[in-house]
Specification:
Chain B: Its main location: membrane. Chain B: This is Multidrug ABC transporter ATP-binding protein. Chain B: InterPro entries: AAA+_ATPase, ABC1_TM_dom, ABC1_TM_sf, ABC_transporter-like_ATP-bd, P-loop_NTPase, Type_1_exporter. Chain B: Residues 340-573 form the ABC transporter domain. Chain B: One of its GO terms (molecular function) is ABC-type oligopeptide transporter activity. The structure holds 2 protein chains of 2 kinds. Chain A is an alpha/beta fold. Chain A has helices at residues 18-27, 30-46, 49-62, 67-117, 120-124, 127-144, 150-168, 170-217, 219-225, 228-280, 286-327, 371-381, 401-407, 422-426, 434-443, 447-452, 470-483, 500-513, 526-529, 549-555, 557-563, 573-581; strands at residues 349-351, 356-358, 363-368, 390-391, 394-395, 408-411, 420-421, 460-461, 488-492, 518-522, 534-539, 542-547. Chain A has 2 domains: 18-169 and 284-327, ABC transporter type 1, transmembrane domain (ABC transporter transmembrane region fold); 349-570, Rossmann fold, CATH 3.40.50. A 6-stranded mixed sheet of chain A has the order 6-9-10-3-11-12, with helices on both faces. A 4-stranded antiparallel sheet of chain A has the order 2-1-4-5, with helices on one face. In chain A, strands 7-8 form a two-stranded antiparallel sheet. In chain A, β4 and β5 (394-395) form a beta hairpin. In chain A, α7 (150-168) runs antiparallel to α11 (286-327) and α8 crosses α11. By secondary structure, chain B is of the alpha/beta class. Chain B has 3 domains: 1-164 and 299-325, Up-down Bundle (ABC transporter transmembrane region fold); 173-278; 340-575, P-loop containing nucleotide triphosphate hydrolases (Rossmann fold), CATH 3.40.50. The two termini of chain B are 44 Å apart. Classes of the chains: A alpha/beta, B alpha/beta. At the A-B interface, α3, α4, α5, α6 and α8 of A face α3, α4, α5, α6 and α8 of B.
């Protein structure tokens, strides 16, 4: 029975340990898991049916020349073929459903967790780690569930074969049942060694693939400066290393491949020898001799499943551990867990560390000497880091975080653009109307972005806005942040990547768009600062002066040097070095 | 966006034939050994048949012992033969693989820039990672397995034919239904699995993006939207996986049932042959065992067919890169002059309307020219024409009287360098990252270049020039990376520099630091700066204002300000003067 995916409620995962997590994935769908075990066991035992039926056809039909008997057994072989085909596909479907149910469940709990975790996530987990968890670990965890079906089936089939052979001859049963684990012990260490060299091969292959990708992403740089031959040579050298590593893998791999076929064949030869002697002495019939041959040949299947299944389980446990590590992360409340109500209506924000006061309802420009100070200040104002910021006189840390997020928006310079149509990107919540979108696009001067994309607002925007230019991305972000309509909007360098013409337009429109609401613009562009109500000049992390752009230009030489680029450039280390070189 | 080409069947056949020709010897030995191993592998069922005949004939244990020992001996020989064959075959595959990937990278490096830019690097990146890996996997696993299985199958058929020619056809009893369903499956499988792979990587991308943009999700309160988006991707993944499962649900049962047919047919035929006294019981048993034995290689071929198909598709994409004509070698000898002149240049991107409408511009050696104008005016296009990356549709761009597109690309790059906001730190040491720009540069040259651009961070590097940089090693921040790019330019030493918004992607303060480093690079060169920051224009000797694909104003900063046109208006507002 196919599951209904995605799950309406994926449930609460058991994150106490990797094995418990795997067990949780099974427990959530235990009837299907049970069905998988039953079908897989039946199928695997059924595989022994064909050798048995062939043996009966030989004994009862061919040897005695009894046509009706022969026809009956041949019909039985065909019938068994139909049943086995049916069982086989039922096993495959049930196991696929079992794995897919688990895959969707893991994806959903991860999705739910990652979406609600917030800013703490990138700080605690490196980006590549999440990509591995989502790309590899989810599916490997699901593959471990294979053990539930064919794994159980293999154990039962193996036991059954023991009983059947025991009925033919106890000695044969002992040889077969002890022999198979012996084979596993012989091939096992070889497999271990193979895994070792293969891991190194894959690592080297990974290096080479990264190199090729590196060259591809640097192609335009190479085109500008030259030097392609050097890279072709470097790559070829590395490729030859991989070639030699490949030879090493092949040396062992070829033994594994030859022995995994050869050792069972040797084993089969021994069994044939034993049973042929018995047949020669009349202890068993010729048909039974053929059947024993068939049974032993078929036993390879459960043994293979057990080896493979054990491997998958080990890998699945490792993967489950990494999934749990993400699921165990808890949001951090930036130093406090306040629940107090936020001030109603307009209120000033004040940051004692820098001495900055954000007056309610105005457009405030902040020009910082050091960009790092600007980022730190913005983070304090938005409570992304602990601080002593007050809002309407109340400490920000004492307020309910969700409410702070709703009412104060810190719009980062490089905030993430998610994939979707341009309209999806701009509709930051369901209440956004077309008219609002139009107004925000106008303010952000992003009309040409809409026009240049085929399909306008319905055009797809790729992840991180990769199909947009730097300037287009920045304006789409600005429109998006305007559409969030927060009471306090804190913008970081919102126009650094657009040309002066466009910047002038944005500066003009931003003031009108945010009229009556509090807006803070961190920037050093005179075009933008000129259109603010008030500017705070930040030096060494402290507010050094407050006034209009015009006032500060005349009263603060440092401010003038920072924003008006025609002034004498301050001597910095780099400038001094350049000077020394001349 | 124009896609990169894909190789057709003839190209693939030619390339495969070439690989096989070069490996003629080892490949031949491998095939012969595999064939020998397969033939020896046939001994067991035949010997079992003999044993049965002897047992029925009343032979004693001694005779049975000899035959059983022979089975064991054959197995040992088979192990040795197939191990050697596998090892040799693996080496052939590894060599072919190395050659394909090295060719691929060499050809990628020879691609003309305009082709790379128009196709985007996404397609190339996929080919260099996914496709090269898929071809590699096919060569290492799929091709050998299919080849060995085919040899085994042929050997089995031959053995049955030897037992009795008519019986050979009986082994094939399962073939018609297997082939029919395989054809049905293979026609549908590639698209279905492609869709499945797409859906899976899109889900991964959505999850990863949600994690990477976690702060944005929190700031803009997008959690519900992200969940909705992710859930939609999970739905897509499930839909595509059900589609492939539906295909397998037809394919697997038919194939598995077909496995019963040869044994059944063989028993019936055996009964008939036996009744007529044409064959012994032992021979019939051997033939039946052979028909059972044929299942495994057939099974493997079928399992790998789909992967082989995927390997073929990837190979056509890998070889497709070779179909792009490489950058033309120059036809003109390098000119001594340095004057860069544009005459009546018009340009349009493939099929579109003109972006530049007749540009006339003379850049004097040693001058600094700033090009300003609104987004979309054609500034970057002009930069590309000047750098010789694109040729004008009409008109000409010449350096010292020679059209730039007729210069040898390497020669051209030595004279004119285009610097964009794209900077890239290659994987490798700092030395590698500098050396490619000027292979003959000494260590002192490199240190001087770093000092010239004010790369103060050099002092913090643990191993100096031998510090590993790039993906997976030490990461440079954007400003440092831009300085590295500038140090390369100092080493490459072109007489003309075209700066296309070289600092636009940096935050303003960093951009200013970089501009200062740039000052060192610009010394004594002709500079054409495409800029949206007007202070660049202020410092330039001349300013060109580009609007709607035409140069609307041209002159020194002071002249243009005095003229009171578009530039003057912009300058006043930017400068903070009240107009």
């Amino acid at each position: 029975m196919p599951p209904r995916l995605p799950h309406s409620d994926p449930g609460i995962p058991d994150t106490r340990g990797p094995a418990r997590y795997l067990w949780w994935l099974v427990r959530c769908q235990w009837p299907r898991a049970l069905r998988g075990s039953v079908v897989a066991t039946t199928w695997m035992i059924g595989l022994a049916l064909r050798p048995y039926l062939i043996a009966r056809a030989i004994d009862d039909g061919l040897r005695t020349g009894d046509w009706p008997a022969l026809l009956t057994w041949v019909a039985a072989i065909l019938g068994a073929g139909v049943v086995l085909a049916y069982l086989g596909i039922m096993r495959h479907r049930t196991m696929t459903f079992l794995r897919e149910d688990a895959t969707a469940r893991s994806s959903q709990v991860l999705l739910r967790h990652v979406a609600t975790l917030g800013a703490v996530l990138p700080r605690r987990v490196p980006g590549g780690e999440i990509a591995t968890v989502c790309g590899t670990d989810i599916s490997q965890t699901s593959w471990a569930l294979t053990m539930v079906g064919p794994g159980v089936g293999a154990v039962l089939a193996y036991t059954t074969a023991g009983f059947v052979l025991n009925a033919v001859d106890p000695v044969l049963a002992v040889v077969v049942l002890l022999g198979v684990p012996v084979v596993a012990l012989v091939v096992g260490p070889l497999l271990n060694k193979l895994q070792g060299v293969d891991t190194r091969y894959r690592a080297e292959l990974g290096v080479l693939t990264t190199r090729a990708g590196d060259i591809v992403s640097g192609l335009r740089v190479l085109a500008g400066v030259g030097g392609r031959d050097l890279f072709a040579r470097r790559y070829a050298e590395r490729s030859q290393l991989l070639l030699r590593q490949g030879y090493r893998v092949g040396d062992i791999m070829s033994w594994v491949q030859a022995l995994t076929v050869g050792i069972p064949a040797l084993f089969l030869a021994a069994v044939v020898w034993l049973s042929a002697r018995m047949a020669a002495e009349g202890q068993i019939t010729v048909g039974e001799l053929v059947a024993v041959y068939g049974y032993v040949a078929v036993l390879a299947m459960p043994v293979w499943f057990l080896l493979e299944g054990g491997f998958m389980t080990v890998r699945g446990l490792v993967s489950a551990r990494r999934i749990i590590a993400v699921l165990r992360l808890r949001p951090d409340d930036a130093g406090a867990t306040g629940t107090g109500p936020a001030p109603e209506g307009r209120a000033d924000l004040h940051d004692p560390d820098s001495g900055l006061t954000v007056p309610a309802g105005l457009l405030l420009g902040v020009a910082a000497e050091n960009p790092a100070d600007a980022i730190a200040l913005a983070d304090r104002l938005g409570r992304y880091v602990p601080g002593d910021v007050t809002w309407g006189g109340q400490p920000l840390t004492g307020l309910d975080l969700a409410e702070v997020r709703t009412r104060i928006l810190v719009a980062e310079h490089d905030s993430h653009l998610f994939a979707g149509t341009l309209r999806d990107v701009l509709r930051v919540h369901d209440g956004v109307t077309e008219a609002q979108i139009g107004a925000a696009i106008r303010t952000a001067s992003a009309d040409d972005v809409v026009e240049s994309l085929p399909g306008g607002l319905d055009a797809p925007v790729e992840e991180r806005g990769r199909n947009l230019s730097g300037g287009q991305r920045q304006r789409v972000r600005l429109a998006q942040h305007l559409l969030a309509e927060p009471e306090v909007l804190i913008l970081l360098d919102p126009t650094s990547a657009v040309d002066s013409h466009t910047e002038a337009r944005i500066a003009d429109r931003l003031h009108a768009h945010r009229a009556g609401r509090t807006t803070v613009v961190f920037a050093t562009s005179p075009l933008l600062l000129d259109r603010t109500d008030l500017v705070a000049y930040l030096r060494e992390g402290r507010v050094a002066a407050v006034g209009t752009h015009e006032e500060l230009l005349h009263t603060e030489p440092g401010y003038r040097a920072l924003v008006a680029r025609d002034a004498e450039e301050p001597q910095t280390d780099a400038a001094a070095q350049v000077g020394a070189l001349r | 966006m124009k896609m990169l080409p894909v190789a057709d069947r003839a190209t693939i056949r030619g390339s495969v034939a070439e690989l096989a020709r070069d490996e003629k010897g080892p490949l031949g030995v491998t095939l012969v050994l595999h064939l020998a191993a397969a033939v020896v592998g046939l001994a067991a069922p035949w010997l079992i048949g003999r044993i049965i005949d002897r047992v029925i004939g009343g032979a004693g244990a001694g005779e049975v012992d000899v035959l059983a020992l022979a089975i064991g001996g054959c197995v040992v020989v088979q192990i040795l033969l197939s191990r050697t064959a596998q090892n040799l075959g693996n080496r052939v595959a590894e060599r072919a693989n190395a050659r394909l990937r090295e060719d691929f990278v060499a050809r990628t490096l020879r691609l003309p820039v305009s082709v790379v830019e128009r196709a985007g690097t996404g397609d190339l990146a996929t080919r260099s990672s996914v496709d090269v890996a898929t071809v590699g996997n096919a060569l290492r696993q799929v091709v050998p397995t299919v080849l060995i299985s085919a040899i085994q199958l042929v050997a089995i058929l031959a053995a049955v034919f030897l037992l009795h020619p008519l019986l050979g056809f009986v082994v094939l009893a399962g073939a018609p239904s297997t082939i029919a369903v395989a054809r049905w499956y293979l026609r549908r499988a590639p698209q279905a699995y492609l869709a499945e792979g797409d859906a899976t990587s899109r889900l991964t991308e959505t999850l990863t993006a949600t994690a990477e943009g976690a702060r944005t999700v929190e700031a803009l309160r997008l959690a519900r939207q992200r969940e909705r988006e992710g859930t939609a991707r999970i739905t897509d993944q499930w839909t595509t996986r059900r589609a492939t499962l539906a295909l397998r649900s037809v394919f697997f049962p038919v194939v598995e049932f077909s496995y019963a047919l040869p044994a059944a047919a063989m028993l019936l035929a055996g009964g008939f042959f036996l009744g007529n006294g044409w064959l012994s019981l032992g021979a019939v048993v051997s033939a039946t065992l052979y028909s059972q034995q044929s299942i495994e290689p057939l099974d493997r071929i079928i399992i790998f067919l789909e992967q082989a198909q995927r390997g073929g598709a990837s190979l056509s994409r890998v070889l497709g890169i070779g179909l792009v004509p490489p950058e033309p070698r120059g036809v003109a000898t390098a000119p001594p002059g340095q004057a860069l002149v544009v005459r009546g240049a018009r340009f349009s991107y493939a099929g579109g309307h003109d972006v530049l409408h007749g540009i006339d511009l003379e850049v004097r050696p040693g001058e600094r020219l700033a090009v300003v104008g609104p987004s979309g005016a054609g500034k970057s296009t002009l930069a590309r024409l000047l750098a010789g990356i694109d040729a004008p549709r009409e008109g000409v761009v010449s350096l010292g009287g020679v059209p730039v597109t007729e210069l040898d690309p390497a020669e051209r790059r030595r004279r004119i360098a285009l610097v964009t906001q794209e900077h890239h730190v290659f994987i490798g040491t700092l030395r590698d990252n500098l050396a490619f720009a000027a292979p003959d540069a000494t260590e002192d040259d490199m240190l001087a270049a770093l000092a010239a651009v004010g790369a103060g961070w050099y002092g913090d590097l643990p191993d100096g020039l031998d510090t590993e940089l790039g993906d997976g090693a030490r990461q440079l921040n954007p400003a440092d990376a831009q300085q590295l790019a500038l140090a390369r330019l100092v080493l490459a030493d072109p007489h003309t520099l075209i700066l296309d918004e070289a600092t636009a992607a940096l935050d303003p303060t960093t951009a200013r630091r970089t501009e200062r480093s740039l000052g060192a690079v610009l010394e004594g060169r002709t500079v054409i700066a495409i800029a949206h920051r007007l202070y660049t224009a202020h410092d330039a000797d001349r300013v060109a204002v580009l609007e709607h694909g035409r140069i609307s104003e041209l002159g020194s900063h002071d002249e243009l300000v005095r003229a009171g046109g578009a530039y003057a208006a912009l300058w006043h507002s930017w400068h903070g003067d009240k107009a």
